Amino acid sequence: MKIYENMLLRYKDGKVVRVLYENRKTSIIHVIDLDANRMPYPQKREMLVTLLKTQEVSVEDERGYNRIILEEELSESEKLKRDHAWEMIMSLIRKVENEELIYLSKYRERAIKEVCQVFKVSYSTVKNYLIRYWKGGKTRNSLLPNYFNCGGRGKERKVSGKKRGRPRLSDVHQGINVDDHIKKMFKIGLNRYYYNERNNSLRTTYELILKDFFTTGQVTQNGVTIPILSKSSELPTYHQFLYWYKKFNNLQREVSSRKGTRVYHQNYRAIIGDSTQDAGMGPATLWQIDSTVFDMYCVSSFNRDLIVGKPTLFLVIDVYSRMIVGINISFEPLNSYVGAMVALANSMLPKKEFCAKYGIDIAEEDWPVACVPKRILADRGELNGKQIENAIQHLGISIQNSPPYRADYKGIIEASFHQLNLKVKPFVDGAVINGKNQSERGQSDYRLKASLTVEELYRIVIKCVLFHNNYHVLSHYIVDEMMLEDEVEKIPVKIWEHGLQNKIGQLRILPEEVIITHLFPSDQAKITSKGVLFRKMLYASEYALKSGWFQIARIKGSSTVKICYDPRDLKHIYVFEENGLQKLALLDHLLIFSNKGLEEIDQIKKYEQEVDMKSKEKELQEKIKLFNDIEQIVKVGRQKTDVERDDRKSKSKKIKGIKENQRVERLLQRKKDMNVQQNVNLVDSDMVLGEESEDELALFRQMQTLDWEDHDE
Asked: Which of 564, 569, 611, 560 has the alpha carbon at shortest distance from 591?
């Protein structure tokens, strides 16, 4: 039977233990008793398995042992105590070489004493925090103080003749007992005056509630009706209103109502991640990601006469080594989810094939980064959303977000943007002048000088990245004692290699299809009889042909399938199947779109539409002309026919000779064709009419003469 970490086991005598750790080599499992204040103790795996099989021990449901805690319901005091305890526990765990040692008293006791000295707390304090941490399933909230068990929290005192609450020092304006009727007035007033975009203060809202609900009558002064407030002894105080406001209020609703839902999600939602931003553990411990608009204009790769604007550059940098680990250049907007995802995917996948696509051959050691980091630091933009949070978390990465308008929190990546611009701008055409997006009077428009495509800019940036990683000297980088002893050069790739050998030891690598699945943007495609249709392009693969996708679509009709794709190159798409991702390639007759990004393909299709529209305008004009020519020819033919038509012949006679007339007409056409060929000296002996044909033509004319004579009689 499988035994996993955090599993709860209940013995027949009622004791419940939690599984904390299993050593698979020694088959020792460390458990902790949830009903006793004692440290974990070891158990033999074979014994637990036997007890489970004999039902002496059963698996306990987790519900009831971990209470559901909403962050907004916690007081500041609870949060401070919890976070302080969490720091102690994390410090304690870091003081042992591996997790199993913390369950051995010899190593645990020494680590606890060191933590006590650092945090200036007693031994029992650290011990109790550690036990609570283990009992609560090794979660942060397991360290919350048990305030919820104290007093009558959440229980409302009964309303009586005596006013509830602490008596005031003065007898003036003591307040009233707030019953359900007055609470309803408070709620109506808050909805009416506070939860809206007028942003009234709580004091103003309180006063408006008094005006609406706590008046005894009205008086008229100078033609104006003025409400009269009740006696002060019959009015709720502002502090009473404030007390009930805090009980009624929901922070999300307050911010959403007063500032808008967008502002709440952008600036007030809880941020996932730890506030610690050091990368002392080594390479791939902490990466930074950001985006900026490149200070130059580009042209379209399919028509260089079209200016397509300034591209967006996404960079991913390893904080420890200063290595640029991933890039993405596209026309996605700043803080774009798709742009950030593609940059992260590029940072976690091998670079050799990526560089080869842009005509640059490198060795693996030139850009030796193809791993998954532990943490990613971003601003409140590209990594600030549930969609990307879920994607990142599936890869086992935690997110840290810097405060708004604090670019200094990501000074490393901001400096890299500046260095790239300094290297590129002196040589390219169409660069922004003086950092401004407009020209001074008399200056030529630099946008008209644009000459590079995105692919060419990619090649330049890749060259700059390779130079930075392999040759750039980090003059201001502070090396540690070990790096000084080993004489490590202050070059990103050298620092990366040294950190890999002496710090982290081993990088975390995931299969390519796992990274693609979680980071590349996904969409819906349609399986048709002609191929898998996505953005008006068709794809196929050997797997799809063997599975009969297209035959099934032709028989039963088209169906949809979920895909993911690389927006930089739509030559391939990936279909989600039960046995993994299936790679589909663009059909041969659509290879014009090969190695082109999403934006460029859209530009090509838009350009085609514009050309088609111009052609269709000309087509319509020529079609009108064609209709007019047809009408003229029909009109002339109708007039000639009306002149020669003999209405005296019966209908049956006209219809009876159709086949004979056709044969004679064929002879006449041959005669005409023969004459035309003779005029251009191209005589064909096989087409010359013989004497027999001449006799037949004469006979036909004679028959026509007889028909006319019969008709006259």
From this structure: 569
